[in-house]
Amino acid sequence: MVSCPWIGGVASRHPRPSSKEPPLSAHAPWSPPPKPLRLATNEVHIWRFPLTPPPLDAAEILSPAELERAARFRFERDQHQYVTGHVNLRRILARYLPQSAAAIAFRTEAKGKPYVEGTQVRFNMADSDGLGLVGIALNREIGVDLERVRDNVEHHDIAQQFFTAREQSELSAHEGAARRDAFFHVWAQKEAYLKARGDGLTVPLKDFSVSCDVGVAGVLERHDEDGESHRWEMLALAVAPDYAAAVCVEGSGWSLRAFDFGEANP
Q: In sequence order, what are the residues at sequence separation of 6 or more whose Cβ sits closer than 8 angstroms to the Cβ of residue 128?
C-alpha cells in the first residue's frame, strides 16, 4: 500500500490566485461551469484552479501509480501540487466521461502524452506555483501551458539557447519587465504547442517561432515542416496576475469557454 503523507489538514503554502482579474486576452471571462455541462465539437474548455492542500479522499481517487509518483517528490509542496492537480484533473474529466473520477484509466502515448482510451475527449494539464490549468477538447489534440512570471531566470541566456533568431530579435526590442513578460509569453506558447503535438522535446524549440507580443499568440512559422503551423491555432490566456499561459488546439473554427474549478464549483 502506498503511503500518503499529504493527507491531512496541512496549511497550504501555495498562494491563491489574486481575485483581481487581469484584462482578458481574446477569450470569455472565467465563470462557474454551467449545469448541465456540454462540450461541442467546436468548443474548447479551459479550467483553472488553485493548488490548495489535497482533499482527504485523494488516496481513494488517484491510481496506485499516481500515488507512488507523488510519494517520490522530495518536498511536501511538490507532493501537494501534484496530488491536487491530478485529483482535479480526474474530477474535471469525470464531467465529460461516463466514469467516476477514480475509475478513469489513463494510457500513455509513445512519447508520453496521456489519454483516456475509448473516448474522443482530449485533454492536457499544466501547473505552476500554486495554480493549475486543464484544457478539454473533443476530437482535437490540445496542449496548455502555464508559467509563473518571475525575475530569477536568466532570460537572455535561455532565449539564446532555445529561441529562434526572430524571437530573440523581437525580445531585444523590449526592456526590463516588458522583456521578462515577453520571455514567459513565448515560453508558454512553445510548451503548449509541443504538448498539443505530443512530441515533447523531440521537436527543437528553435524549429518554430511564436509571437513575442504579450496577449497575442500564434504559431507564426515552422522552419522544418511546410504547412504544419496551419494545422494549429494558439490563444493566449489571461489566467491571473504574474502568470503567462497559452492553449494550442488542432484545427480551426473553435471557440473557448473558461471555467473556475474549486471549492465553490467542485
A: 146, 147, 148, 243
